[in-house]
Structures are given as C-alpha cells and as structure tokens.
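Structure first, sequence second, as always.
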C-alpha cells in the first residue's frame, strides 16, 4: 500500500515532524511505500487526487497498482475532511485498517 502526503502550507509543515517523530508510524511504514508530494508536484490539481475536495494536508492511500483506495479514510473525522489526519493516533488507525483490509483480501 502507498500513502501520499503533499507539503503546501502551515498545516502540512506541522504534520511532517509529527509523522517523522512517531515510532508507531515508523514501524507501520515498513508495510507501505510512503510518498511525500512536494509543492511543485501539486497532486491536488489532478482530479484523481481531488476526492473529498482540495483541502490540505490529506493522506490518501493507494493500492499496489497505484489506484486510490477512497474507502480508507480518517474515521474520526466523519464525512467532512475525511482524509485529514491531525494526529498520530488517527494516522496509525487508518494505516492499521489498510493493513487489515489487505490481509483479508489476500486470504480470500
């Protein structure tokens, strides 16, 4: 699985050290290909990555073929800003959900 993070403004810049300093995210990231989109890469301008609007920062999970998996959202956010992750707990919850979903799919 993959995750994309784009670094555009203050909220993105605040999120980066939170992710970088989390031991739990580090451990879970061994199961993912982590992608950080830089300012000039602007995935928000690509309609494919504009699911749920254009707010930032957003963490979007992709499958191994590069397809967006819109069902993996921040369940703590409900229906509004469902790809926004302000805390380590919320990020790791979704990472674990993705891993569980992949494990179930592989078992079938």
């Amino acid at each position: 699985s993959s995750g994309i993070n784009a670094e555009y403004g203050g909220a993105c810049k605040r999120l980066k050290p939170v992710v970088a300093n989390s031991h739990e995210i580090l451990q879970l990231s061994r199961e993912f290909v982590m992608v950080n989109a830089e300012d000039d890469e602007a995935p928000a301008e690509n309609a494919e990555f504009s699911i749920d609007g254009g707010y930032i920062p957003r963490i979007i999970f992709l499958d191994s073929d590069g397809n967006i998996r819109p069902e993996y959202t921040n369940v703590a956010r409900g229906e509004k800003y469902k790809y926004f992750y302000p805390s380590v707990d919320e990020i790791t919850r979704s990472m674990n959900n993705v891993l569980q979903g992949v494990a179930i799919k592989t078992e079938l």
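Margin note: Helices lie at 10-20, 23-29, 88-107.
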